Amino acid sequence: MTTYTQLTQVERYQIQALFALNNTPSEIAAELGRHKSTVSRELRRNRQSGEYCAEAAQQQALSRHREKARPLVTPLVRALIKHKLKQDWSPKLVSLWLAANKPQRASHTWI
After folding, report:
1. What is residue 107's DSSP assignment?
2. pLDDT at 58
3. Which of 3, 4, 9, 64 is 20–30 Å from 76 (CA)?
């Protein structure tokens, strides 16, 4: 079983060069040792006007990564969780209470 790893900036530049030479996504994938769906997805996500720009693709990937890394629980909800835990509520009960009463949720394993 192969573990997925994100494309590197170097791989993106290789994709750009090979795509500019009219290689197919399957040919590019074989050259990089990647699955063809990885290359196809990369080209589909990051092509503009038919062209693929590695630098822009790398910036978009970093931006998506930063957006995912934002905390999902606001400071207010975090304070509510701490308050409930200090009152001897179980993480499971706090999670259920949040789901019923607040717009934000937190899993009991996270709590």
Report:
1. -
2. 96
3. 64
Q: Is the dihedral of CA 88, 92, 97, 98 positive or negative?
A: positive
Residues 85 and 87: their CA atoms lie apart, in Å, by 5
Per-residue tokens: 82: 């701490």
* pTM check: above 0.85: no
The helix (run of H) or strand (run of E) holding residue 52 is: strand 51-52
- CA distances (Å), origin 9, targets 1, 43, 62, 63: 24, 14, 10, 14
Spell out, as residue ranges, where the chain has pLDDT lower than 50.
Answer: none
Query: How far is the C-alpha of 31 from the C-alpha of 21, rounded, in Å?
Result: 13
CA dihedral 71, 59, 52, 32 (to 10 degrees): -80
User: What's the confidence (pLDDT) of residue 104?
Assistant: 81
What confidence score (pLDDT) does residue 70 get? 67
- 24: Cα separation from own chain's centroid: 26
